[in-house]
Design goal:
- The protein has 180 residues and is mainly β.
- 0% of the residues lie in helices and 58% in strands.
- The chain has no helices and 19 strands.
């Protein structure tokens, strides 16, 4: 009965779904089941990291990690409990990145580091720790080189989604907009 905001897939038999009011769901590819949540904050994005491993982010600086069958807050917690985190992704080496409006940070497993941000930063696509693409302001494709963000393309149409494969990031939007 709650609004679902994001889904990630590990395999045909393992999916994680997140949504409003801290809703967490799991799927085996056939049915969807509820999972106990440690938060009532809205969850906006989720990234599957491997079998029985995922990270979800949302309002109030919420960052949750799935380990096995249990979701728990990441420790230490995200330093800005007023942040609305809208995107989460992991580098190939395991570093976690989170973003939101005017927020961008890295988590190395033990500490958070604030990084230069952009307005309305969403849909992180992490190709490497110094090779990150995202959408900013709804229509700009931006690139983070480990030091700063640079606008790579401005779409005449709003962009709504992103995906990546080794060495490539793709963003899609209204009226068939597709940016690679």
């Amino acid at each position: 009965t709650s609004t679902l905001r994001a889904v990630c897939r590990v395999s045909d038999s393992e999916w994680s779904l997140v949504g409003d009011a801290g809703v967490l769901r799991g799927s085996d590819g056939v049915s969807i089941s509820s999972t106990s949540s440690p938060t009532t904050n809205d969850l906006v994005d989720v990234a599957c990291l491997g079998t029985k491993q995922a990270v979800a982010v949302g309002t109030g600086g919420t960052v949750l990690r799935l380990a096995g069958s249990t979701w728990q807050p990441v420790s230490p917690s995200f330093p800005d409990n007023g942040a609305k985190l809208t995107s989460v992704a992991q580098s190939p080496l395991g570093t976690l990145f989170v973003a939101g409006d005017g927020v961008f940070a890295r988590f190395d497993g033990s500490a958070w580091t604030s990084l230069p941000s952009r307005p309305k930063l969403e849909h992180l696509q992490v190709l490497g720790s110094t090779d990150i693409y995202a959408i900013s302001n709804g229509n700009e494709v931006v690139h983070f080189d480990g030091t700063s963000w640079l606008t790579r393309f401005t779409s005449s149409e709003p962009l709504f989604a992103g995906a990546s494969a080794p060495g490539m990031a793709v963003f899609a939007g209204r009226n068939g907009a597709l940016v690679e």
